[in-house]
Amino acid sequence: MFWRRRGEHRFEPAAPTDDELLGALLREGSQDAMAQLYNRHGGLVYRFSLRLMQDESAAEEITQDVFLALLGDADRFDPARASLSTWLCGIARRRVWKHLRARERDHAAVSEDDPDRIESPEDDPFITISRAEAVDAVEQGLDALTPALREVVVLCELEEIRYQDAAEILGIPVGTVRSRLHRARRQLALLLSPDWADKSKKEDGQ
Amino acid sequence: MNMRRSDELQEALRAIRERHRAIGAPLSLEARLRDAVPPRRPARRWIPLTIAAAAASLGLLYLGIAPRITHPDSRPAAPLASFVMLPASFGLPRPGATSIVRIEIRKGDLRRYGVDVPPPVEDQLVRVDFAVGEDGLARAIRLAGAE
Q: Which residue has the higher pLDDT, A165 or A19?
């Protein structure tokens, strides 16, 4: 009874278990499996680390650590709890924060509980900026966010990870993810002048 | 935050997202990670033979014959029909090397492979063997212990 096949129906590819199978192959010593896993998930881990560390060599070092951790601790990955990308990102996030706390800064020591310290943009309502300038301003504003807010923006806005998975990576409730994202968006929006939309229309010949 | 600023912010974030997602993982790191993997155990070379024979064995089973093969490492013989080809594997390129990967999954997960699993047992765990190519894609499946 257990092996009886159904009638005609669509078979889905075994995609959800590919990472598990590659992980098993990796434990067997497959270098190709490591390359495949790195190609699948390395970009996400590296980009996340890069945005948080704002340093390419540090981001590369963290990415390497993450995949070496996969090699050494793959048994700790529980596919029932989270996807492999979520698990890897969680490791990256812990490494990033370890680096951030160890790094000496000009300002006060970094804390996840730090209040929002983004530099206030000029509040002059008469300053107008172009669309390109707006994108640059928001990107600079993103870099200026506290790490606690920046990591939420990176995961949810830039990587488009689900709130639930972001919560798992960050080790915080989903509600906290949403509230931090809201605060970050509010701060970033302040960088946009109220007349930006009008000026953009003029540039477009409207 | 008014609607206009919200829309403008979304537009800016969309542009930043495109730039961001264009950043890939460093290629130089892949080689270092490959080198970090300890040497692999020899592949069980009888698997390709098993997979190829599994399809042919259906005809033999119809005739009431259940041929068996002997593993090179003297493990108990495995019936050729114990591995079932995965329909999703048809059309996949033939793997250069194949390994058996044994994992534990929920019985309910077997439905994605076309196996009918009654609800009362779907949460039970079962160990299965996958015949996997070096591309990480499974070609065939059997219950562990079906050997």
A: A165
The answer to whether B5 and A189 are in contact (CB under 8 A) is: yes
- Half-sphere exposure of residue A161, counting CA atoms within 13 Å on the CB side? 30
Q: How far apart are CA B68 and CA B57, in angstroms?
A: 10
Query: In percent, how much of chain A has pLDDT > 90?
Result: 52
Residues 6+ apart with CB under 8 A from A103: A110
Q: How confident is the model at residue B6 (pLDDT cuts 50, 70, 90)?
A: confident
Q: What angle do CA A198, A202, B2 make, to 5 degrees?
A: 15
Assess whether pLDDT exceeds 90 at residue A152: yes
> Which amino acid, A26?
L
pTM of the model: 0.65
Nearest CA in chain A to B84: A3
- Written as six digits, the tokens of B61 are 């089973």
| ipTM score of complex | 0.76
**What are the tens digits of pLDDT across the range B57-113?**
443 343 333 333 333 333 443 444 477 777 777 777 777 777 788 887 778 877 777
* C-beta atoms of B29 and A38 within 8 A: yes
| Pairing outcome for strands B68-69 and B98-106 | unpaired
Cβ B99 vs Cβ B92: under 8 Å: no
List beta partners, residue B103. B128
DSSP 8-state symbol, A189: H
Residues of B in Cβ contact (< 8 Å) with A28: 40-41, 99, 101
> Could you tell me if A63 lies within 8 Å of chain B, comparing CB atoms?
yes
Q: Which of A37, A72, A20, A28 is nearest to B43 (CA)?
A: A28
CB neighbourhood size of A98 (10 A): 12
